[in-house]
Amino acid sequence: MGRIEGIYPKIGVASGEVLISHREFGPPEIIGNPANTGARLADMAEGGEILCDSNTYSFVKFKFEFMEKGEVKLKGMKKKVSVFSLIDRRKGILRKRSFGGEGFPFVDREKELFLLKKFVEDVFTEEIGKVVFLLGDAGIGKSRLVEEVYSQALGYSLENMKQFQWYEGKCNRGIDTVAFQPFIEIIRGFIGEWIDGDPEKIRGAITRYMDDTEDTDMIMHILGFGKRRVGISEASEKGKIFNALLQFIYGISLMHPTVFVIDDLYSADTSTLEFLEYMSGRLNRFPFLMIILSRIDKNLPFWRVKENMKSLLGSTLVEIYLKKLHEEDALKLIDIMKGKENIPENVIKRAVELSHGNPLYLEEFIRYYIERQSGRETDIPPTIRGLIDSRIDSLDPGTKEVLEEASVIGYRVDREILGMITDHFDDLNAHIRKLVNASILSDVSEGKTENLYFYHPLYREVAYKRMLSRHKKRLHKKIAQTIEEHFSSRIHEFYEELARHYKNADEKDKAVKYSILAGEKLEKNYASQEAIKFYRDALEICEDRSKTYELLLRIAHLERLSGNGNKALSYLEECERICENTEEKIKVYTSAGTTYESMSRYDEALTYYKKSLSTGKEIDFRLKIPAYLGIAWVYYIRGKYDEVENAIMKIKGFLETAKNPDEIDKQHLARAYNILASTYNSTGRHEFAFQLYTGALKIYRSLGDEAGISTIHNNLSGIFSGIGD
User: Residue ranges of the Orc1-like AAA ATPase domain (predicted)?
Assistant: First the structure.
């Protein structure tokens, strides 16, 4: 680390979330582990040394070299902290990312690579160049694609024994913004090191390639060695600088086939953008290939410049938009990255889901897991969070607040609801337009409804997690109440959303109510696992014992239908523990018998069915019919047809004495007919079987029970097949 004579700062850097409290007087108060860690690292550093923690290291290790100092116990910290000492900026043409010591895998960009390779070959063979805008989200693979283009160009150069030139410059808008930033880096790359910072040596290196003394003066001016000339207008001075810079890059491109790469144009300084427009209007032919990388943000000045360049250059300018990876390519990428590491399926699934086809996000999720071999599935790696945080921070305050409101609504944002709950109703459309132009939200018309979607799920997650808990709760409650008030006529469409909003608002009673309604709705649509999720959500916060009992029974029933018998039994055990009366116990025992029956564990099924019958002998017979039906079915499977008839006759006896037809559960009656018919069919009494099947079919049709109807049709075909009809 270089030192300034006489100044030896001790610097500690830590990354993470902090809470900043702005006070009326004095500096803001910063609270959080990163602030404490940074201070302790600064205390630990030697004079002139910069120390950082593992989070910071993971952000910048691709651009800077570090020496690992191991894990250190810092004062006041419970856990040890991994410490890294900064050595220097990484050198080389490209700053390659790596995974496990190998180059980052290249997947699903063959078409784009083919096109760029063709442009490189055109520069080599015909000296005809292009300006290529490579556009896409942060981490989508722009830099990785350029790395591959460099490898292709190098290979072509070696194969044809033809020298080529490759220069890179990166835009950087911040507190240290420099005019013509990327072109200064390109000039540095051309003349080599700064030659000890000696202006005369630098001038000498430039003069070798420029005939005009004034142009050389202008290049020196760009590099910071010139003096402002008195009596010359700013416009005239800028025009001379533009001309000198154009002559410089045009001149060096005539020496050998040349590729210029300009990275992060979205953060370009004004002078760089103005020069690109100037260049586009002055050159009739491009003897070089210029690849410009940028994210998509139509709100920023560079986008207008790009559009102007497109109109000036016509077919010489090409736009390539990098799309997200398909799921199969994402899985292929994970397979390459993880190597021999054993990564659980749920972690892989979560990584694919949240990365949304973004290679960098995918890599960071997998790396984050491997480095920790633990962590919650919902953890967002700090590198990804930092990228998205910086993008959100670049928004104006009003747009940022609308983004936060949208994140509380969900991944799909109902525009009508957003309009009802926002604090920025008057200028909402303008804020939405900014978010759409920035590719944070996408605007989709679905029939008569206009919905917004988060361009990437992680944008929503990061925006949501930035907010204070009490503010999120207030918004969740406001959204839920708005839905209840304005959409009461079709409230059933919003059960799932109302359950989520009231749960996150910590309104437990309403959350339980809508979670149960959502579960019932999904259950009717045969979406058992989705229904279970809502029932479990209700179970977590339910404080009413009787509702808890019903929820446990429902979940057990659905788990059994889904083939998860052991899970169903565990819920039934929990259900039995909270039973308060005989009726509840009978239902639990019968359900346990049905579950064991579905698992082909017939002895245990009979045990629980009989336990149900022996519990509360004076209880309403209707509660015991399901147990008799279960016993009858088990005996039918075992071929004990006399026992089947005995069980069914018990049911028949009750049905004949029932005074009110409404007391009879038609579902049970249809099942009794079906079991007895199957017994008759198995013992050759086909005519009786046919009559009973027909009776069961009528009942199932009246109930609209498609599964029951299908079962009877199948059984009837068995009769006709058995008698050769």
Answer: 106-291
pTM for the whole thing? 0.66
Range 42-70 burial, b when 16+ CB lie within 10 A, else e = bebbeeebbbbbbbbbbbbbeebebeeee
- Which residues does residue 64 pair with via DSSP β-bridges, in sequence order? 89
Assigned token pair, 638:
């075992």
Give pLDDT < 50 ranges for the chain: 1-3, 92-103, 175-176, 230-232, 375, 377, 447
How would you label 357-369 residue by residue, b for 16+ Cβ within 10 Å and e otherwise?
bbbbbbbbbbbbb
Evaluate whether the domain defined by 388-457 bears CATH number 2.60.120.200. Answer: no
C-alpha to C-alpha distances, 595 to 558, 559, 607, nearest whole angstrom = 10, 9, 12
- Phi first, then psi: give them for residue 296, nearest 5 degrees: -95, 120
H or E stretch covering 76: none
Q: Which three-class secondary structure state does DSSP give residue 569?
A: helix
In CATH, which superfamily holds the domain spanning 11-89?
A: Nucleotide cyclase, GGDEF domain (3.30.70.1230)
Take residue 407 and report the two structure tokens written for it: 């994140």
- Which residue is it, tokens 């930033």? 181
| DSSP assignments along 464-516, one per residue | HHTS-HHHHHHHHHHHHHHHHHH-GGGGGGGHHHHHHHHHHTT-HHHHHHHHH
Say whether 295 sits in a helix, a strand or coil: coil
Question: What is the full DSSP assignment across 42-57?
Answer: HHHSPTT-EEE-HHHH
pLDDT at 231: 45
Taking the alpha carbons at both ends of the chain, their separation in whole angstroms is 93
Strand pairing of 317-321 and 131-135?
Answer: parallel
Residue type at 414? D
pLDDT at residue 187 in the model: 87
Total residue count of the chain as it appears in this document: 725
| Residue among 274, 282, 275, 284 nearest 316 (CA) | 284
Domain ranges of the chain: 11-89, 109-321, 327-379, 388-457, 639-725
Q: Positive or negative CA dihedral for 390, 392, 396, 397?
A: negative
The structural architecture, per CATH, of the domain 639-725 is: Alpha Horseshoe (1.25)
Contacts of 468 (CB under 8 A, 6+ apart): none
Distances (CA, A) of 23 to 29, 30, 471: 7, 11, 20
